[in-house]
Amino acid sequence: MSILKTYDYYLLEEREYEQLLTRNADPSQAVHHVVMEIINDVKTDGDAALRAYAQKLDRVQLERLFLTADEIAALASSIGREQQRALEIAFANIYRFHETQLRKERSIETMPGVKCWREPRPIEKVGLYIPGGSAVLPSTLLMLGVPARIAGCKEIVVCSPPQADGKINGYVAYCLQLLKIDRVYLVGGAQAVAAMAYGTPSVPRVDKIFGPGNQYVTKAKSLVQALAGVSIDMPAGPSEVLVIADGSANPEYVAADLLAQAEHGADSQAILVSTDQRLIDGVQTALEDQLTQLPRAAVAAKALANSYAVLCDNLNEAITFSNRYAPEHLIIETDEWQSLLRKISNAGSVFVGHLTPESAGDYASGTNHTLPTSGYARSYSGVSVDAFVKKITFQHITAEGLRNIGPTVEVLAELEGLQAHKNAVSLRLR
Ligand SMILES: NC(=O)c1ccc[n+]([C@@H]2O[C@H](COP(=O)([O-])OP(=O)(O)OC[C@H]3O[C@@H](n4cnc5c(N)ncnc54)[C@H](O)[C@@H]3O)[C@@H](O)[C@H]2O)c1
Ligand SMILES: N[C@H](CO)Cc1c[nH]c[nH+]1
Ligand SMILES: [Zn+2]
Fold first, then answer.
1. pTM for the predicted model, two decimal places
2. Which of 24, 31, 53, 57 has the most ligand 1 atoms within 8 A of CB, as the residue to mutate?
C-alpha cells in the first residue's frame, strides 16, 4: 500500500497543480469566525475572557494569569543536567549565528556633501508566542528570545498555553532563565495574540507579535495586524517540508525527514519530489516501517494523508515545482545539490546534502526555525534579528552638498506643484 499519493509532473493539469500548491485554506471561513469572536471577547472582557478561554480550550482554571521568577526557577530546577546542557548548546549556537546580523551599515555620500546612513533601533515591546497545544516547544522560545535579546528589545512578553496543572513545562522555564525573562503569561491560542495586541490588566500590549502556532494563532496574528495596528513577524503556521531527492538519496533518510515534519500536527504537510520512481517506492516502504515506531504515529499518519509525491523527469523540474510551492523547509538530498542552490528562489530555510537533517535547524545548528508557511516564503523571510529592529535612516547635508543637491530638489518640487517643498531649499541657497 502506498502512503503518499504520487503525481506525474508531466501529466499535471494547471488546476491540479494549483490545488497541490494550496494548503490550509479556510473556505467556509470557520476559523476566521471563531478567531474573530475570541478577539472581540478579549478586547471587551480582558482577563476574564482569558480565564474563560483557558477553562474552555485548555481545561485549566487559573487565578493568576502569569508565573513569577521564583515559580519559573522552581520549574527550571526540575530538569535533568543532560537536557540543560542541550538547551545551553542550542542557545549558544543560535546566539552565534544571529549576533552577526546586527552589523553596522556604512554611511554613503550620494553626492559630495550629502551623507546618508541607517541605524537600527530595537522594537521596544515585543510579544513572543510559544506553542503548547499538541507538543510544547522550548526550542521556539530560544528561536525568538535570542534575536530579541541581541536586538536589545526592552520588554519581552512571553505567552504560552498553560499545562493541565496550571504551570508551564520545566524546559520552557529553563529557556526563560537562559534568556533572563522573569515572567511568563499562561495564555494560549488566538486569545494570547489578542491579549498582546490590545493589552489586558495582566498582559501588556506589545508593538509586534512573533511566533508560530496552529491555524487559530496564525489567523489571529493576521487579524490583529489589520484591526489593532500591531505588527507581526509573518504567517508561521503548520509545519511543512519539501524534499527533493534523486537516485543517490537514501530512502530511509528521506522517509525520516518527511516524518519529522509530519509529526508536528495533522495539518502539517510533507512533500517528496523525485526524479526516480524506485526512490519513491523505497521511501513509501520506509515510511510504513518508521511510522509504526513513532509515538505520534496517529498525528503523522493524518499529515501524510494531506501529503504527496511528485515524479519529475529531471532536477530542474523538481526545483520549478519547489519554487512554486515555496516550502517552509526545503531539503535537497542529491549528490548534485551544489548546482541547484542558485536556482532556488522561494523557500524559508534550505538543508543540503545527505547528512543535513532538517531537525538540526529545528533545534541547534544556529539558524532560526520560525519560518513562513503556506506559500508565504514567496515574500517573507524567517525570523532574524532584523525582525526585532526598525532601521532608521539619517542624513546630513553641508553647504557644498546643498549646492549640489538643491537645484534637483527645486526642479522636482516644482514639477509636483509643491511650492513649500521648493522654498525649504531655495531659502537655504540664498
Ligand atoms: N512555521 C513555523 O515556524 C513553526 C514552528 C514551530 C511550530 N509550528 C507549528 O505550530 C503549530 C503548533 O500548534 P499547536 O496546536 O500544537 O499549539 P498552539 O499553541 O499553536 O495552539 C494551542 C492553542 O490553540 C487553541 N485551540 C485549540 N483548539 C481550538 C479550537 N477548536 N478553537 C479555538 N482555539 C483552539 C487553544 O487555545 C490552545 O491553547 C503546529 O502546527 C506546528 O507545526 C510552526
Ligand atoms: N519544525 C518546526 C518549524 O516548522 C520547528 C520545531 C520545533 N521543534 C521541533 N521543530
Ligand atoms: Zn520540527
1. 0.96
2. 57
